[in-house]
Specification:
mainly alpha
């Protein structure tokens, strides 16, 4: 029974943390973004793997709970089957496919902070003042030859 409660609680927490990271600028979202930007993470695949695995945990927990209650197999196998459908989708997300913009964390961040043009593409990055000074120094050194 503890495993069922654990699955039902872990899943929504994962969905909440993914939603917060993707669509908000709260302090907890920035903390979770920094934690998930560590070198051992799976790169861009974390965009959809986290919500799919969280949904898997939640649906399997609900299916196990319905089984414990004593409902017929037709009822508790529905959330279990939907949960197991999330697993191959999560594995597919590990391949280097582009994620849709509406679930991409980086795109949503740029959208919230006005870093996109009218077509929804990222604005070109401007060079910093230090880069301009270094290029001026390099030009002067070559002109002195």
């Amino acid at each position: 029974m503890i495993a069922i409660v654990g699955l039902i609680l872990i899943g929504p927490f994962g969905l909440y943390s993914w939603y917060t990271q993707t669509y908000t600028d709260s302090s907890s979202a920035s903390l979770w973004r920094r934690m998930s930007a560590s070198p051992q993470t799976l790169g861009k695949s974390r965009t959809l793997v986290k919500p799919l695995l969280s949904l898997l945990f939640t649906l399997l927990g609900v299916g196990m709970l319905l089984d414990k209650i004593g409902l017929p197999p037709q009822v508790f196998l529905i959330p279990a089957a939907l949960g197991f459908l999330c697993l191959p989708l999560a594995v597919i997300c590990l391949f280097p496919f582009r994620t849709p913009r509406f679930v991409n964390m980086e795109y949503q961040y740029m959208k919230r902070h006005g870093m996109l043009d009218e077509n929804g593409d990222p604005l070109p990055q401007t060079s910093s003042v230090e880069d301009d000074e270094e290029s001026d120094d390099n030009d002067q050194g070559q002109g002195a030859l």
